[in-house]
Amino acid sequence: MIHLKKNMPFSCSIGIAVMVLALASFSGQDVAEIKNGSVGLWKKNPKISLEFVRTIGELDSDDENLLFYKPADIVFDTEGNIYVLDAGNHRVQKFSPEGEFISSFGRKGQGPGEFQMPLSIDFDEKGRIYIPDAHNQRIGIFNSEGTLVESLSMHEHMAGPIRVFQDGRILMGTGGIRSISLGDPKGSNELPKYLKILDSAGTLQSSIGEKFNYKDMILNSVGNDYDFDVDQDGNIYSAFKYQNRIEKFDHVGNLHWQASRELGYSTKPPKERSDTKVSGNQVSVSIPRMNRCSNGIAVDENGYVWVVGLKRQVIESEPSGAPGSNERQDEEPSKTDIFQLELYDGDGMLLYKFPLTQYVDGIRCHKDRIYLLDADHTAQFFEYRIIEK
After folding, report:
1. Cβ of 59: how many Cβ atoms within 10 Å?
2. Cystine design at 296: which of 178, 189, 202, 362 (Cβ 3.0–4.6 Å)?
3. CA atoms of 172 and 195, how far apart (whole Å)
C-alpha cells in the first residue's frame, strides 16, 4: 500500500515584487518578454494552498513492487490508476487509485516490450501508453494492461522524453543520450531547435524553440537542458535548467511569451570553456560550473504553470542535479530547503512561491494534484492537493 504521511500546509516569506513586460521579436514574431521580480503578484494573499497527501513508493519495504530505482515519471489513466515509470528497474508499475499494487510490465532488454532506462510516460486519447526508449531508438506504445501494440522507430530522430497531444501528435524533447563531440570546440553558429512535433506515426512535422549558443559544443549540450509540458489546449511550456528562461508556445509552435524571474544569483554563461582530453582509450571532460535555476515544469487543469525552482546556487552542472557542498541539511539526509515551487499564470506572470522540504527532480500534474519526484534520495513521488481559496 502507498505510504501515507500527515497533512502539512505551506507558508512562504515575502519580499518585493517587480514585473516588467516588453515586446521582443523572435523569428519575425512579436513575443511578450516578462521580467518577474523575486516575489509574485499575490504577495501575502495567495489564492492557492498546497496540502501534502501521501508518498508513492517506499524507502524500506518487504514488497519489492513498492521499491523503485531511479523512477522517471508518473501518469494516470481515466479510472485514476497510477502508472509509475520505474526507469532504473526497466519497468512500469501499475497501482489502483488507493495505492494497491495491480501489475507490472517491462524488463531490461532490446526485444519487443523491453526497456533500457526509459525516459518518460504518457497516455493518448485512446488510453494507450507511450514510452520513449533512447537506448533502443524507439517509442513503445502499450495498452493499459502493458501489452505492446505498436513500436515507432526513432532511428532518424533520437527518442527523447515526450508528451502526447489530444489529437495524437507527439511532442518530443532532445534525445535522452548525451553525446560528446570532439570536433570544433566553438560549436556551430546554428543550433538545432530543441523541441520536435511528430505526427501519430512518429514522422517529424516541425521543430520549434531556440537554443542558446554558448560557442562551446559541450556547454551547448549541458546548458540547453530543459523540461517541458503540454496543457489541455495543446499549448507548450518549457523551463531551462541553467538559463533563466520559461517559454510558452501555442499548439503549432508559435512562441507567445518568454519569462524570467529575479533569482538572487547569476545564470550567465561561464567565462571558462569546457575541456576535453583524450589519452589512449580514455576521454575526460571538464565542464565549468553552471548555476541551475529549475528542475521541472508542469501545467495543471486550470492552466496554472508550476516550475520547480531553486533558492540558492548550490547545484553543480551535472545532469542528475547533485547538490553542492554548501547545502544545509537538517535531520534527514533526504531533506533540504533549497527547492521551491514557483507558480505562474498562463501569461507568464509569477504569482507565488511555495517552499519545499525535499529534493525534487521532476514534477507532474493530474487534475487537482501535483506529484513531485525525488528520483535519487528517496526514489518516491510526493503527492499534494491544490486547494483554491
Report:
1. 14
2. 362
3. 6
Which grid cell sits at 296? 521541472
Cα–Cα distance, 336 to 60 (Å, whole number) = 20
Written out in words, the top-level CATH class of the domain with range 19-388 is: mainly beta
349: its cell numbers: 506572470
DSSP code at position 66? G
Q: How far is CA 240 from CA 99, 124, 142, 205, 368, in A?
A: 33, 26, 30, 23, 25
Q: Are strands 255-261 and 29-36 parallel, antiparallel or unpaired?
A: parallel
Determine contact, residues 53/368, Cβ cutoff 8 Å: no
Q: Which three cell numbers stand for residue 104?
A: 507490472
Distance CA 237, CA 165 (A): 13
Q: Is 388 exposed, middle or buried (0-12, 13-18, 19+ CB in 10 A)?
A: exposed
The whole-angstrom separation of Cα 152 and Cα 19 is: 44
Q: What is the pLDDT of residues 238-294, one digit of tens each?
A: 999 999 999 999 999 999 999 999 999 999 999 999 888 888 888 888 889 999 999
pTM for the full predicted model: 0.88
- The DSSP letter of residue 94 is E
